[in-house]
Amino acid sequence: MRRLPRYVRVGLLGGFIIIYLTAVGMIAAFHERNIITGVVQFSVVLMTLVYMAAGYLAARAPKGGSPPLRPTRDALIAGAVGGVLVGVFVILMTVLADAGYTPRDMFIAITPATLDILSFDQGTYLSLPVQAVLGAVLGLAGGYLSTATPNVRSTVTRAISATLIGALGAPLFSVMMAGLGIPSRWLFRSEGLTIVGTVFVVGVTLLLRWYLLRAGGVRNALDRVPGVTRKNVNVVTWAVVGVVLAVLPWIVNTFVSDVLGTVGLYILLGLGLNIVVGYAGLLDLGYVAFYAVGAYSVAVLTARSSFLVGADVTNLAPDGFMNFWVAIPLTIVIAVIIGVLIGAPVLRLRGDYLAIVTLGFGEIIRTLVLSDWLKPYLGGPQGITEIPSVPVGPFNARDPRILYYLILGFVLVSYFVSTRLKYARIGRAWAAMREDEDVAEGMGISVIKYKILAFVMGAAVGCLGGAFFAAKLSVANPGSFTLLVSINVLAVVVLGGMGSIPGVVVGSLVLVGLPELLREFGEFRLHIYGIILVAIMVFKPEGLFPDARRARELRGEATVKEPVPALAGAAE
Amino acid sequence: MSHLLELEGVSKRFGGVQAVVDVDLYADSGEIVGVIGPNGAGKTTLFNVVTGFYAPDAGKMTFDGHNISGLKPNALTRLGMARTFQAVRLFNAMTVLENAMVGRHTRTRAGVWGALTRNRRTREEEAQITEEARKALSFFGNRLIGREDSLASDLAYADRRRLEIARAMVTGPKLLLLDEPAAGMNPAEKEELITQIGRLRDEYGYAIVLIEHDMPVIKGVCDRVAALDHGVKIAEGTYDEVASNTQVIEAYLGKAAAAQREGLA
Questions:
Q1: Could you tell me if B106 and B224 lie in one domain?
Q2: Which of A80, A561, B189, B237 has the smallest C-beta neighbourhood within 10 Å, fewest atoms?
Q3: pLDDT in tens, B81-105
Q4: Between the CA of residue B180 and those of A370, B139, B164, B196, B210, what are the distances in Å?
Q5: From the CA of A343, how many Å to the nearest CA of chain B?
Q6: Domain range spanning residue B165?
Q7: Is the Cβ of A156 closer than 8 Å to some Cβ of chain B?
Q8: Is the pLDDT score of A170 beyond 90?
Q9: Is the CB of A420 inside 8 Å of chain B's CB atoms?
Q10: ipTM score here?
Q11: Are A288 and A259 in contact (CB under 8 A)?
Q12: Which residue in B88, B258, B42, B118 sits closest to B185, CA to CA?
């Protein structure tokens, strides 16, 4: 059989994607989410994007092939083919349901209501022409984008992205505007943009784009302003970042502050793991061990139910064994000792073997904590409760805002430590070891010493995450220290870009912050999480915010002069 | 008198294979010793034993007055031994300059505290590391200088070999072990390399032991040549002595060919 023309294949793929989104229930769920309130729902936007993508792909040259002769026609057909497929699907499902075969046994999301969304309430049989026309028009639009100049293309993409970000972030933004005392009713309504808001967002995007194009980019635009040099632009940028970080908890609500605190914990964990995996190249799948060590150390040392003060859950002592701030250095010491204990036996192992053994260590720590043997000390499955909040003078550290500042402080310190270590003799030794362990040893680096050092530094940073976690939740129990935590932290590091310090921040925001803020996507969080992870690994394997030279190595790009790492420069 | 490097009866066995058998070898400062032999003769294994990558099964090894049997590679680097690898092994994701800087590791001390505080001693040490690294890179003229910020993986093959030597020089060695430094180089590059290896001996006073398959290179630089076959040292002497040794010719060409050559001569 001859292969179908490319535009047909692309169109069919688009149709299948929409059917898939319907079958898993995303279309139905996202129909509740406004983009432009009362006019466009997120479900419609998804369909639009799929059709446009189909048209876009159909009109451009396949990888290593020549561009299509009639791109506009191809794009139109691709969209229409996708639309017809979706229409056929709607009709088929209805007919099957009428005949008594309910696909809903398997796909509970394929309800008449969902099918109505696909047919835009035009009834079963009209769904086919409706979808076909919609697909054709949008496919054409995608095809037009594909053949348009890069300038037009990026302008349109930006306008669409800005609208989506504005609409999906509406709950967050309206809270922030309320915090700043700016009225937001004209911009946002029912968790979406108003029509005026949409015009405003698109208008601002276009204006900004027009201005920057005319000025020839941000840099040039700034250079033209008298008295502005690159250096004070950097200073101002960091100052703005600093001010934003400082006032952030007061312009968002406590829920968002709480989310930011969680993001901060993951940044701490990520920075720690980044030292082990990113710098030294030791794949540690049991990093949760240090998270647990941090949490349990603080718990035992400060809780009113701790055995150290002769108490238990039913018989609380008036005070913990020591103050949180005294417990922190001690916690780091304990984590360092555990770091050596875990690091030492796995020194001889490499790569996969190391990963498996560390995986085991992570589980060993959790099992130990759960065990009856240590139950009198660590509380077994119940864990340790009654952990006091962090004492900060007159402030109440149960307030997520206060916790935010504390965690921010520790993140900044860890950020600084990570940066300094990376651009030093130690950082070079780790990098050499990561690249080629034998040769590093041959060049005089004691592999044993530097492996242990990596585990120790990783443990010292990561345990802080655990310490704050315990103080934040006031409990430490084994349920919080599962393998999934190790995997999440590793995903943060890999997604941001291995060895990249800003990458850890970006990775945490995307993987930890976004899902919390997009709670309404509920059951699809993990689904979307997975799609994002796969997409990034396919299209941007070096990570979102990669270390400059690793990006070059992975991309095989021509050598360029390396930009000075922003923070390393700023720190001097 | 004792030599800088002295091997006595060194043996290494892998399962049933005797890779190195009872080898004696020495090297002194300011001399270049070539190690030749057919493929699988045990040359690289001998290197790996000397540089601590393998522990010898038997024999005595001294370096600069120290007994070095069983020492690890990093300890040997500290004592003043540096090597290159048969298949170029650079730190690919690091820049040219950083590759060379890593070589300075054993001669410097900055630890966690120095890295975090970046105190004056650390800054001075970093400056000194950079200087040493640049000095070694400039040994190869403008081949590596000017490309300090390139990734090692972006270098041309011959330059990668040169960077390996530069990295070894930065460790501040007394003895340099070069494993097939000319492999993959074109004739012009080999000529250049021969001069440079000579300069390493004359200007830096290194003792150099090199493995090489390329006979013109061996002939061009070596003060003394040792030939291995099946792990056994079968000849040692000047290049001409070794090259005319019947056992060496047999090892390379086989018995029949050697006999034929005898007959012709």
A1: no
A2: A561
A3: 999 999 999 999 899 999 999 999 9
A4: 57, 19, 12, 14, 7
A5: 18
A6: 92-170
A7: no
A8: no
A9: yes
A10: 0.92
A11: no
A12: B88
Chain A residues closer than 8 Å to B171 by CB: 443-444
Q: Do A420 and B115 touch (CB under 8 A)?
A: yes
- In the prediction, which pLDDT does A562 show? 40
Q: Where are the domains of chain A?
A: 6-215, 253-571
Structure confidence by residue, pLDDT tens digits, A98-130 = 888 877 777 888 888 888 898 888 888 888 999
Q: Are the Cβ atoms of A429 and B105 closer than 8 angstroms?
A: yes
pLDDT of residue A549: 66
Contact between residue A296 and residue A534 where contact means Cβ atoms under 8 Å apart: no
Helix runs in A191-253, H state only: 195-215, 217-224, 230-251
H-helix or E-strand spanning residue B131: helix B120-138
Is the predicted pLDDT of residue A550 greater than 80, yes or no? no
Confidence of residue A551 (pLDDT cuts 50, 70, 90): low
Find which of B97, B102, B120, B126 to mutate to test the A interface (most A CBs within 10 Å of its CB): B102
Strand partners, B208: B32, B176
**Element (DSSP H or E) covering residue A551:** helix A548-555
Is residue B257 a part of any domain in this protein?
A: yes
pLDDT at A560: 40
What's the count of helices (H) and strands (E) in chain A, helices before strands?
Answer: 26, 4
Tell me if B122 and A443 make a contact (CB, 8 A cut-off). Answer: no
Query: How many C-beta neighbours within 10 Å does residue A246 have?
Result: 11
Q: Which residues pair with B67 in a beta bridge?
A: B62
- The structural domain count of chain B equals 2
Mean pLDDT of A33-46: 88
CATH of the domain at B190: 3.40.50.300
Residue A412 near chain B (CB below 8 Å) = no
- Which residue shows structure tokens 């026309």? A133
Mean pLDDT for the stretch of residues A281-289:
92
Note the pLDDT tens digit of each residue in A499-536: 899 999 999 998 888 888 776 676 787 787 788 888 88
Q: Is the pLDDT of residue A572 over 70?
A: no
Of B170, B190, B222, which residue sits at a domain end?
Answer: B170
**B100 within 8 A of B84, measured Cβ to Cβ:** no
Q: What is the mean pLDDT of residues A153-162?
A: 90
Closest CA of chain A from B110, distance in Å: 7
Cα-flanking dihedrals φ and ψ of residue A436, to 5°? -160, 105
- A426 to chain B, any CB pair closer than 8 A? The answer is yes
